[in-house]
Write a structure and sequence with these properties.
about 230 residues; 8 helices; about 45% helix
Length: about 230
Amino acid sequence: MKGKIMVVDDEESLVRLITYNLNKEGFNTIAAYDGDEALNLIIQENPDLIILDLMLPGKDGLEICRELRSQKIRTPIIMLTARDDEIDKVLGLEMGADDYVTKPFSIRELNARVKAVLRRNIETSEDDKQSKDLVIGSFTIKPEQYEIYHDGKLLELTLKEYELLEILLKNRGRVLKRDYLLQVLWDYAEVVNTRVLDVHISKLRDKIEEDSKEPRYIKTIRGLGYKFEESSHV
């Protein structure tokens, strides 16, 4: 499962520490110290995973994440930040980050996160290779393109929105608990609280529901989680 990892942070000593330990684990590493350099290297080097600091000279981590996802570049991203603020976590994950680590952190924890995100990404890629377009009611999932269509129209989704809607669609009619969704979509349920999930559900409703306050598709099951159903209009 070894691969190439890019570390992006303006603290040179931290970059040296992270790359040294990743190299010991058998990974190849590339370093960048500002946002503009990072973007150029990501395109050139095509890393298997990016460890990305939120606060950077030039383009910050959120801008980089947003730009990559808008270009359909799905490279897994673990975001780093010195700030333990919920809004930062929500924004980072909303922009398409796969995981989130708050400084200071232990190298052992970071290595574990790297391996977990890479493992999940490999499993998802293998599933996608074997998948064909899946039609569920008025929705069509195209796994190889990471696209979902509703009534024939392409939905503009972030990576996490895509993954969340996909898992809801594939489990249509089943109640999916909050803890389960957090664990499946973000690997470590303790990294984020249910507010992150609620934000993503709200944004999905804005994109697929005629009235997000009276949702037809994504139902809230009080005290449990969410369920996707395609009920008819009254």
